[in-house]
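Anyone up for a design puzzle?
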């Protein structure tokens, strides 16, 4: 078979986007096979995940996101922006409602976060602090800035369902080695985290800025994680570092996003996540299922201008972070 794909990224969190909206539909096992094969960094493409864009009877379209290990994620904030842009352009709209595994999210074309950088805002609203929703096996209904000695002897964690499971630790400095060790451990301790978890280290930079690094369940250390950055911004408000309802600049290895956490009178939380949805290249793959062991690919279009514009955002982010370091 021949399959058209689109390589895209949100904050350096890169995906292969496959359009199942009309006519094409894979089986569950075929989606797992494609994820294991196409996301392999040692293979023909490599990616942090595959985004399947599907039709929906509840919304303008549906996003399903599969990790490189073949598992399916409940939410992916960076992927949601990419799917949102793709849906808007396919359907001729500036705003779409996207169904995800655990609910629906509005995605809206937004003011560019940097010159020339296509920017979309996704509303993450299926959020819970209830430990049963995460799930994490502790003796409290919520876990807010508390130690988890099974993971770390000195760090304190806050558990958030985005609705994919996240643990956020506020740290003075971010250590990749420590983050990776805790991330690997968290996803092996099924007695504590039955479905595993994404682990986020969050460093407070200023009154309206944080830096976030994520160990992503099913992936490992990533340049960024949209739901992780959203969870970290929410926790920074929950713990009093930043006010609700104000935009926070969230820096990461892949650049910069802006998050605005909110809470209403019923203690329901939402996060408005705004950032790039960059198209990198289109491609046509030729292979045969069920195993897709031999793949031939044909390049389509390289979105060179978008790549260059995002490169300038990276430069801007790095220069800003240097200023924070020199304060």
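Challenge accepted. My sequence:
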């Amino acid at each position: 078979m021949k399959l058209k794909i689109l390589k895209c990224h949100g904050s350096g969190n890169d995906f292969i986007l496959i359009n199942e909206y009309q006519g094409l539909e894979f089986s569950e096992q075929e989606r797992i096979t494609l994820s294991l094969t196409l996301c392999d960094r040692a293979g023909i493409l490599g990616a942090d995940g595959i985004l399947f864009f599907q039709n929906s009877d509840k919304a303008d379209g549906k996003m399903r996101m599969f990790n490189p290990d073949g598992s399916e994620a409940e939410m992916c904030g960076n992927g949601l922006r990419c799917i949102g842009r793709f849906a808007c352009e396919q359907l001729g709209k500036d705003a779409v409602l996207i169904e995800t595994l655990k609910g629906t999210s509005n995605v809206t074309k937004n003011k560019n976060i940097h010159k020339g950088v296509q920017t979309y805002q996704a509303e993450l609203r299926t959020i819970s602090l209830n430990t049963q929703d995460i799930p994490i096996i502790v003796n409290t209904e919520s876990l807010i800035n508390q130690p988890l000695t099974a993971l770390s002897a000195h760090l304190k964690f806050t558990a958030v369902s985005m609705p994919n499971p996240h643990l956020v630790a506020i740290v003075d400095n971010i250590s990749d080695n420590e983050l990776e060790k805790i991330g690997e451990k968290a996803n092996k301790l099924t007695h504590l985290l039955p479905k595993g978890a994404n682990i986020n280290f969050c460093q407070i930079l200023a009154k309206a800025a944080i830096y976030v690094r994520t160990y992503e369940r099913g992936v490992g250390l990533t340049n960024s994680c949209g739901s992780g950055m959203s969870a970290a911004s929410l926790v920074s408000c929950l713990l009093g570092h930043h006010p609700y309802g104000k935009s926070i600049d969230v820096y990461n290895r892949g650049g910069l996003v802006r998050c605005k956490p909110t809470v209403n009178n019923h203690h329901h939380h939402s996060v408005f996540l705004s950032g790039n949805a960059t198209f990198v290249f289109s491609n046509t793959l030729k292979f045969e299922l069920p195993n897709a062991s031999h793949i031939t690919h044909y390049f389509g279009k390289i979105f060179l201008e978008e790549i260059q514009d995002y490169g300038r955002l990276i430069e801007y982010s790095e220069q800003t972070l240097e200023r924070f370091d020199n304060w």
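A detail worth pointing out: Residues 304-325 form the longest helix (22 residues).
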